[in-house]
Amino acid sequence: MSPLVESFVRHFGEMGSRWGINRTVGQMYAYIVLADEPVNADELAAELRVSRSNVSMGLKELQSWNLVRLKHIPGDRKDYFVAPEDVWEIASTLINERRKREIDPTLTVMRELLMDTPSSAADRHAQNRIKEMYQLIEMLTQWSAEMQKLSPKQISRMLKLGAGVSKLLG
After folding, report:
1. Which residue, 35, 67, 82, sits at the end of a domain?
2. What does UniProt give as the signal peptide span (predicted)?
3. H-type helices in the chain, by residue range?
């Protein structure tokens, strides 16, 4: 692994723990994303100096997040893995998966709590706060879904426009 790749892989592993994934899974993903060829589990274990079983579990996690795809190489019985080439596709996948795992369950609980009849003034106050949070999360979720319908070029233009707007308003 070159110093450039190693530096990025190490950093991504450290950041992974802050994003809710373990360090090794973060390193594995960074290595796969940067690889110019499909990567197999043995290569990951050797390059990252981790056990083969740890790599197997990490690959299953990355597949469950739809961040890597299995790729077969003709004449080779090993399983190889690739990440999407398009960084916008990676971002979209992460947004969708985090929504399914984190936002949707939270909205479900909030909806259920909003359907309860408050039994005190404190519960009415709490329910009003839950309603405000629910409406905000719902609005952001709908906005995110609309943004994901746009092409990468359109999103890029919007992001640049947003930077210009903040300068005007700032």
Report:
1. 82
2. none
3. 3-19, 23-34, 41-48, 52-64, 87-98, 104-115, 121-148, 152-169
**Residues paired with 70 in a beta bridge:** 81
Q: Which domain does 155 fall in, by range?
A: 87-169
Structure confidence by residue, pLDDT tens digits, 53-94: 999 999 999 999 999 999 999 999 999 999 999 999 999 999
Residues 165 and 92 occupy one common structural domain: yes
CA atoms 79, 33, 21, 99: torsion sign: negative
pLDDT for residue 162 is more than 80: no
- The alpha carbon of 156 is separated from its chain's Cα centroid by a whole number of angstroms, namely 19
Same domain, yes or no: 96 and 144:
yes
CA distances from 152 to 36, 44, 91 (A): 22, 30, 10
pLDDT tens readout for residues 102-153:
999 999 999 999 999 999 999 999 999 999 999 999 999 999 999 889 998 9
Best CA proximity match to 28, nearest among 7, 10, 44, 46: 44
Structure tokens at 165: 């707007």
Question: How much is the average pLDDT of 34-52?
Answer: 97
Query: Of 65, 82, 99, which one is at a domain's C-terminal end?
Result: 82
